[in-house]
């Protein structure tokens, strides 16, 4: 699908494939950045392992018999239960549901640690109430485990593989299982004994089990005590047939991609997930049309291509037209940068981001498109349409200070009866806070430019998203999803 993604898909795509998204709060970027490293922290603490376990525990409330539960963030209301203790899961943002973020954590953790690419969907809905208990505890019998996983939607063979896929990362913690793991060297720190001795997402968990060299405490126990040897009971529950098949690393990787994908896509029956979200082969972002420093409009945007190109040109058509009357409606990028991430590399891509920042002579823009090494990229035929240019965000003319000065440019070929904005505060936790509408007034301190007058308002706050509105001749024009981030 080549069309402009919706802001929702765009946010998911950006976070997933680029590890960041313009305009998202720093915490979201930090969250992904943490996953960009797989190395365990002190005493084998691994953020990657924590995300995978967290996701499984959240999903474990699923009941296939009545379609309730699943990956729905109910875990955050279940955290006082003994089986679900997590130290440093910090949820990043509110553009996504928490459960979509958790699912993304699984995808990124897996690939960052050298594992396979898990296909990702969005659209999970966070629960408002805790679910029933569903997380298995290591004291249980093989029969109990098989029934627990059946309820969660997995066969016995799938259970064996899914546990092996999960337990390739992380290990058992001293504070939780002091009879299995001795305390760490550093006082008060967790000591974690890795399941398979490696921090990588690999099948050592399987091969060391099969060849008898494993030190996995859930297989070997401690001091001859087998109460807690749940992996031994799980892995052996089909006479090691499944484990033997997983000794092939490619089969292990493919099986984990499929089963972890099913794990994160296990949602309550009433939730419909999006299609798989693939990296867009041609991705346009950060589009900003506004009066520039000189007396004309300027168009800023970025274009991401899956691979490097020799020649990239931006073309545009005049306002209210399919063509360019001046014959001078094209521009080269001002720079290009490699934007690869581990996930994109794993998909065989090495994307490049081209930045355009061009004056628009004569008249404004109705739509734009690109020419890439002689091939036209025009969003599946329609071009990238600028819906309206009656009201535009003018971030360059705004200012940070005790108050935030927000400036809108309004075309001066007609007089608006009202100019106003809705603002959304982005910090805090679970919901976006929408402030009451604020009027913008004609700002005499900013001289008209490029056929636009400037309207402004100064408001408290620092990190906002905006929808700007102008009512002109009884019609409301809107510039949506702007971000004070662009003012920096
Ligand atoms: C029979 C089912 C399972 C049992 C009994 C079980 C048991 C355990 C236990 C006892 C620990 C150590 C926790 C601690 O020390 O606090 C652990 C860790 C972990 N489990 Fe499982 N588990 C099961 C299934 C799964 C599944 C299906 C996954 C994911 C696909 C998973 C992922 C993990 C991960 C990643 C860790 C390491 C966490 C870390 O190091 O931070 N487990 N599990």
TrEMBL record:
PROSITE patterns on file: PEROXIDASE_4
Keyword vocabulary terms for this entry: Heme, Iron, Metal-binding, Oxidoreductase, Peroxidase, Signal
Enzyme nomenclature, EC number: 1.11.1.-
Plant heme peroxidase family profile domain segment(s): 96-263
One Gene Ontology molecular-function label: heme binding
InterPro entries, per the entry: Ccp1-like, Haem_peroxidase, Haem_peroxidase_sf
The keyword Heme belongs to this UniProt entry's keyword annotation: yes
GO biological process entries: cellular response to oxidative stress; hydrogen peroxide catabolic process; response to reactive oxygen species
Family, similarity comment: Belongs to the peroxidase family.
PANTHER family: HEME PEROXIDASE, THYLAKOID LUMENAL 29 KDA PROTEIN, CHLOROPLASTIC-RELATED
Record's protein name: Peroxidase
Organism this protein belongs to: Favolaschia claudopus
